Amino acid sequence: MLSDVPIGEASxxxxxxVATIRYYEQIGLISAPPRTEGNxxxxxxxDIERLLFIRHARDLGxxxxxxxxxxxxxxxxxxxCATADAIARARLSDVxxxxxxxxxxxxELQRMLECTAHGRVDQCRVIEVLGHHExxxxxxx
Amino acid sequence: MLSDVPIGEASxxxxxxVATIRYYEQIGLISAPPRTEGNxxxxxxxDIERLLFIRHARDLGxxxxxxxxxxxxxxxxxxxCATADAIARARLSDVxxxxxxxxxxxxELQRMLECTAHGRVDQCRVIEVLGHHExxxxxxx
DNA sequence: CCTACATCCTCTAGCGACTAGAGGAGCAAG
DNA sequence: CTTGCTCCTCTAGTCGCTAGAGGATGTAGG
Lengths: 141, 141
Description:
mainly alpha, homodimer, 0% strand
């Protein structure tokens, strides 16, 4: 079951869009599956697991190139997992720095929106703060 | 002072790269400045302030289209600031949801890296967790 | 005046990771 | 046999730049 299914079903089963599956094949992230006589792609359970793996990794923000490496590691499980560790660790620190940056953006945006007098633009903090950047990018607040 | 300067100086003064300034002109985010006899662009203080405004807004993650609207509001300050407010509010909620997502990614990545036995790939949690997505996308952990 | 060298100009193509759409073929059900 | 869905390939567009080619202009020193 879930063997020799067409692309639409593989898409439904994996959560990866049809066009994206074809794109992954095109860039060589997945290999080209066999075809029916009518030239339609046929996927089996392993293919769908790969797609799920890819989707999960993409959801976690891994780049295609990193996923390429991770898939390769999955295929050759007798290697050291140092590479996989390094990739995940790099991703973690990326996520952490993004969080830090977004938190400071959040503070600044909230500050911008501290304008209870919803009047005209010339009294509005949003435009004002954007115009007076000097006072904002410094970590003095 | 800072009037009739060439693009390189406008770039240095605003922190927006030369190529990016030309790109902004091309897409109509800023208007085409006058030129010298030798066909070089000349920027004045107002232009540089616009570039700073844009840069600050970009740093805060506003999209070009949003910035277009914000610049327009800045030029017509007799309008209601509701639009500016809405844009900033939308940006804030975007930032907040990104933070939330990244925080849960962080947790999942940390869980992936809880593998102290740095052995071979077949014992490695990184690959394993990516392969067994079912247990991860559910909010049960 | 000549020569370096920096800066400027336009134009085109590339990035990442898809997404959308045109135009056509295959296939299952009624 | 026709309707309507899925599938095929191919191309171009998205966003916000960035890089590079190939050439013109401007400035400082010898």
